[in-house]
From TrEMBL:
<dbReference type="Pfam" id="PF01337">
    <property type="entry name" value="Barstar"/>
</dbReference>
<dbReference type="InterPro" id="IPR000468">
    <property type="entry name" value="Barstar"/>
</dbReference>
<comment type="similarity">
    <text>Belongs to the barstar family.</text>
</comment>
<feature type="domain" description="Barstar (barnase inhibitor)">
    <location>
        <begin position="31"/>
        <end position="108"/>
    </location>
</feature>
<protein>
    <submittedName>
        <fullName>Barstar family protein</fullName>
    </submittedName>
</protein>
<dbReference type="InterPro" id="IPR035905">
    <property type="entry name" value="Barstar-like_sf"/>
</dbReference>
Amino acid sequence: MRPGLETFRFEPDLSGRINGRSFYWRLPGDISAKDELFAVFSKSLWFPRDFGFDWDGLLDCLCDFGWMSDRKIILVHDRLPRLPERELKLYLIVLRDAVRWWRFEDPHELEVVFPEDLRGRIEALLAADPATLRG
């Protein structure tokens, strides 16, 4: 398995609820700008007011769920956001790093779920040299 993919869960069918005893959030499928992505995360996951609306701020908030009472947070993607390739890679890196962070911390667990048919695209994005990315 390629580096990074072990941090995500891939499922052939995301039509149902993944787990009924966790905080479960489905990322809207029509996101096409990073500012929109940050706003949706901030509102839906109740980020603190000092959230910076940037990649570092997103990572910081995904690594600190002190305001969440649920132990497990599941972020489900039916599709990838329609971001420029460079920003999409940054988004996946943030998600990967946040999932890895929680593997060694308590009391929360973060799980990021994608459809199985996105595995190859995500693998390619995470393997791409940042200097070759467009956008």
